């Protein structure tokens, strides 16, 4: 029998999103997947870095999220690792997001994939792009924190 995944564990994170965007609002949504994709996600064979969310005909889809098929995938299917996947939200939530995305500078970005009560969920964010100077500030803050941690670590020895 297959091992059940822990509830509320992360499968994959999009660390690049926090560097490139300011997050206004976070939303958790379901994801329509095929069987081989779920098996690959259990093994952690996914990449969210190049993923983004688009609106088509009043529905949300995630594009560019790569789920790499396992070597032991079934022979009667041909897995497509960059298949467009539908996101599941209530109609009212989708309408609110569409209104906000139509504003200048806003986009929807996938942040992570995680398990919740035995189901795979995707956390997306309504985000606004960072300017170049904001990215430099982020790098400067990160390096400053790293130096402080190094100093504290060397002092504890």
From TrEMBL:
HAMAP family: SmpB. Residues 132-157 are annotated as: Disordered. Required for rescue of stalled ribosomes mediated by trans-translation. Binds to transfer-messenger RNA (tmRNA), required for stable association of tmRNA with ribosomes. tmRNA and SmpB together mimic tRNA shape, replacing the anticodon stem-loop with SmpB. tmRNA is encoded by the ssrA gene; the 2 termini fold to resemble tRNA(Ala) and it encodes a 'tag peptide', a short internal open reading frame. During trans-translation Ala-aminoacylated tmRNA acts like a tRNA, entering the A-site of stalled ribosomes, displacing the stalled mRNA. This is SsrA-binding protein. It is found in: Cytoplasm. NCBIfam families: PRK05422.1 (NF003843), smpB (TIGR00086). Keywords: Cytoplasm, RNA-binding. It comes from Rhodoferax ferrireducens. SUPFAM superfamilies: Small protein B (SmpB). Belongs to the SmpB family. The gene is smpB.
